[in-house]
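To the wet lab folks,

You asked to see what we're planning to order before we commit. Fair enough. Below is the target structure as tokens, and below that is the sequence we designed to fit it. If anything looks off to you, flag it before the synthesis order goes out.
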């Protein structure tokens, strides 16, 4: 082990958490729990200078002097620090993206109120200090945004929606938490109400002052998109390569779906077959039970087929999505445990169907939970998907690979798992196979939409139309999807591209190991490196 490099990399991680106390909390580092991020211009200039100094220090290390895992850490650190700088300096997110201020804040506040990493009173005292500073934090955000130009309207609209959810979170989660905090209950409740009023003033600023002057484009452009592909994801692909991959894959998968539909019915069209499939779903009051049963079945399947070794600290709770999160999590999702906390319990959120919705919308929501897609959801989010992948990543051998990750690995792995489970007999029902192909089609469409949106080759409305007309996504979900794509260039393409990268590495590892190859060993070893670019893992696995 190169002690100098390990010392430097640990120091870089510590400085990251010192610059962002909110991020530290969500990662399970609680030495900064009473602080908020400083994001005024002077602080950000100091942050940039510190990151540049760190990049210069990293250059001093010869690759040959490092082990394969240290070389991996070096590549991850250099790429992630370069990406941090360019988001700030080139895209100017702190002057253009109001949502950035809210998301990290809400993640940390949620963590403090819900995660039991220390007694409630102790968490409450730290939360009190943060809430007292929150008005100044939002004032800084507003000041930065007033200095911005070329602001995309859709980014500000997303921030307004986030602020609406935040108001509900304050009322439904933080205030009840404050009521449980004993001797500081009254003070914490007052601070929560004061912070909530500041949040509402910030929302009014976004809606009334900022949004009317938002006339900019969200597209990041070819240069920055390809920079992210290389530095954040370790991919030596160009936009043109992704467009070809997306186009070929959409055509190929559509053909497979047509053939699969004919196995189910020779008389009905593909669209009619899918509509029939979607009508078979659990009743609204049985939804959570259905997911719990399917998640347990998926776990048992992974063990019985010896697909991988489940970590000893495996704990997963299938629970209803909290009310404040339901507007942005309409169906469900996975909430990972923090990397540096001892309690490693994942949460599989399932969003109940609101009985006050109109009958047509209730039906549409339930159809998204049909009994043929529900198994794929359990595989993707839980076993052997995100939950297992996160538990492995959270015990990686270096802090670098616990902190930094790429969706090319995490989302690629979850999609890989869907096909893995079906290939090993999780279900032989052709209807499940067809819905699995439908999910693949969605991910292939994301590749095209991701690139074209950010190269300004496709409008927002055209992207929504692709998801609805080609991938078969309902319009409400498609609108929410495309909003997210505008904020997260290269994330949408990561599912399909990441699966392909993992499959290529698996095939190369099989050739490298020959008769000694075992799929379980490959999965255990792959996951053990953390959720970093598969390209960086390749050298370590093949030597």
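Sequence we intend to order:
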């Amino acid at each position: 082990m190169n002690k100098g490099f390990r010392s430097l990399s640990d120091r870089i991680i510590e400085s990251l958490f010192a610059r962002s106390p909110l991020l530290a909390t969500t990662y399970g580092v609680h030495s900064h729990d009473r602080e908020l991020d400083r994001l005024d211009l002077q602080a950000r200039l100091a942050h940039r200078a510190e990151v540049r100094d760190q990049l210069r220090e990293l250059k001093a290390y010869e690759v040959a002097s490092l082990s394969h895992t240290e070389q991996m850490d070096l590549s991850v650190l250099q790429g992630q620090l370069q990406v941090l700088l360019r988001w700030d300096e080139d895209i100017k997110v702190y002057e253009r993206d109001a949502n950035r201020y809210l998301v990290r804040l809400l993640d940390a506040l949620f963590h403090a109120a819900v995660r039991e990493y220390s007694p409630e009173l102790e968490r409450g005292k730290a939360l009190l200090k943060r809430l007292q500073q929150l008005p100044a934090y939002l004032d800084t955000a507003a000041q930065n945004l007033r200095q911005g130009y070329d602001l995309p309207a859709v980014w500000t609209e997303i921030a307004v929606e986030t602020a609406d959810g935040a108001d509900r979170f304050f009322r439904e989660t933080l205030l009840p938490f404050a009521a449980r905090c004993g001797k500081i209950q009254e003070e914490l409740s007052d601070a929560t109400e004061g912070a909530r009023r500041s949040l509402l003033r910030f929302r009014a600023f976004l809606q009334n002052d900022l949004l009317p002057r938002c006339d900019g484009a969200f597209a990041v452009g070819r240069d920055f998109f390809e920079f992210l592909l290389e530095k954040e994801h370790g991919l030596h692909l160009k936009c043109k390569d992704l467009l070809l991959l997306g186009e070929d894959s959409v055509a190929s998968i559509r053909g497979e779906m047509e053939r699969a539909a004919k196995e189910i019915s020779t008389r009905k069209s593909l669209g009619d077959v899918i509509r029939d499939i979607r009508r078979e779903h659990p009743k609204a009051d049985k939804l959570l039970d259905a997911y719990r049963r399917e998640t347990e079945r998926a776990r048992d399947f992974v063990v019985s087929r010896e697909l991988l070794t489940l970590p000893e600290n495996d704990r997963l709770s299938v629970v209803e999505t909290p009310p404040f999160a339901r507007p942005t999590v309409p169906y469900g999702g996975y909430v990972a445990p923090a990397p540096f906390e001892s309690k490693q319990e994942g949460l599989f959120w399932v969003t109940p169907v609101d009985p006050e919705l109109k009958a047509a919308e209730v039906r549409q929501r339930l159809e998204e939970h049909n009994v043929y897609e529900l198994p794929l959801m359990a595989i993707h989010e839980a076993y052997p998907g995100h939950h297992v992948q996160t538990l492995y990543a959270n015990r990686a051998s270096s802090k670098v690979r616990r902190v930094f990750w790429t969706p090319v690995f995490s989302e690629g792995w979850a999609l890989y798992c869907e096909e893995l489970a079906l290939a090993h007999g999780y279900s032989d029902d052709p209807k499940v196979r067809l819905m699995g192909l439908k999910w693949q089609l969605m991910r292939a469409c994301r590749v095209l939409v991701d690139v074209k949106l950010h190269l300004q080759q496709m409008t927002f409305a055209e992207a929504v139309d692709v998801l609805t007309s080609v991938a078969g996504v309902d319009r409400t979900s498609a609108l929410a999807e495309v909003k997210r794509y505008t904020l997260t260039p290269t994330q949408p393409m990561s599912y399909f591209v990441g699966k392909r990268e993992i499959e290529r590495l698996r095939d190369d590892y099989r050739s490298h190991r020959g008769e000694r190859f075992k799929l379980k060993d490959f999965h255990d070893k792959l996951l053990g490196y953390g959720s970093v670019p598969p390209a960086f893992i390749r050298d370590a696995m093949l030597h």
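Structural context that might help your review: The longest strand covers residues 315-320. Residues 3-218 form one domain.

Thanks,
Computational group
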